[in-house]
Amino acid sequence: MREVTVVGAVIQDESKRVLCALRSKEMILANYWEFPGGKVEKGENYPEALTREIQEELGCTVLVEKKITEVTHDYDNMRVHLHTYLCRIRNGNPVAKEHAKIQWVELDQLHQLNWAPADIPTLQIITAP
Ligand SMILES: Nc1nc2c([nH]c(=O)n2[C@H]2C[C@H](O)[C@@H](COP(=O)(O)OP(=O)(O)OP(=O)(O)O)O2)c(=O)[nH]1
């Protein structure tokens, strides 16, 4: 089975809303919501990979604040190792360059979205009372 190591950014604003990204219909796992981010490349550490991916996908810079968790999830034909980090916008305004759309969502509304299955443990952590 193909294995990929992926970083995901839980970007929160001052009121704790989370920036959620909808995968486009050209992507694998189309129409699922996810944390913006992507595959770690050779020679990068995870925060470096995350800042690069966010710049590419959202056109802004983030501060990577702390690790939330890591999850291994087996999809039908691939194993994803997802590492999630709490982040804040450092510079710029996020725009959806690759996603179908992005949206700031209140913590108590997050469960209403159709999330990529690998993201569920992170959601449980960030929405825990
Ligand atoms: N970025 C991101 N990917 C996630 C999350 N949850 C999850 O299962 N994934 C999966 C979807 C993808 O298979 C993989 C991330 O790959 P990616 O977004 O960099 O690239 P991709 O496979 O869509 O496209 P490609 O560039 O390889 O063609 O991890 C998440 O929260 N964020």
UniProtKB/TrEMBL annotation:
InterPro entries: MutT-like (IPR047127), MutY_C (IPR029119), Nudix_hydrolase (IPR020476), NUDIX_hydrolase-like_dom_sf (IPR015797), NUDIX_hydrolase_CS (IPR020084), NUDIX_hydrolase_dom (IPR000086). Its cofactor is Mg(2+). It catalyses: 8-oxo-dGTP + H2O = 8-oxo-dGMP + diphosphate + H(+). Residues 1-127 form the Nudix hydrolase domain. It comes from the Bacteria. SUPFAM superfamilies: Nudix. It holds the Pfam family NUDIX_4. Keywords: DNA damage, DNA repair, DNA replication, Hydrolase, Magnesium, Metal-binding, Mutator protein. CDD domains: NUDIX_MutT_NudA_like (cd03425). One of its GO terms (molecular function) is hydrolase activity. Its EC number is 3.6.1.55. Belongs to the Nudix hydrolase family. This is 8-oxo-dGTP diphosphatase. The lineage of its organism: Bacteria, Bacillati, Bacillota, Bacilli, Bacillales.
